[in-house]
Amino acid sequence: MYSQVEILCVILGMALVTYVVRVIPFVGEADLEKYEFLKYIPVAMFSSLAIPDMLLHGGQISPERTIAGIIALIVAVKTKRILLTICVAVITLYVLLNFS
Description:
The longest helix has 20 residues, at 4-23. The chain is mainly α. The protein has a two-stranded antiparallel ribbon with strand order 1-2. The protein is flat and about 55 Å long. The mean pLDDT is 87. The protein has helices at 4-23, 41-55, 63-79, 82-99, and strands at residues 56-57, 60-61. A hairpin with a 2-residue loop joins strand 1 (56-57) and strand 2 (60-61). It is built from four helices and two strands; from the N terminus they run ααββαα. It is 70% helix and 4% strand.
């Protein structure tokens, strides 16, 4: 087990890294256009969290989840409305799990 001091050091280290990464572009003469790629980080993080759950359930491929995810992706690309996308995904998954 880790001691409280070790846990505190890890938390402070993570906070420092997070803060430093966010402050560096604004310190000195940073060219903010050079950091335009950072706008894609939230999408990449969400994808890395959502895609495994969309494809697998209990360690096996779930066709129902995959179909619901593909339909949600199509709705998201066409409408660009997050609430509608979530509702369509949930309803699709519900129908596929309970009525197929």
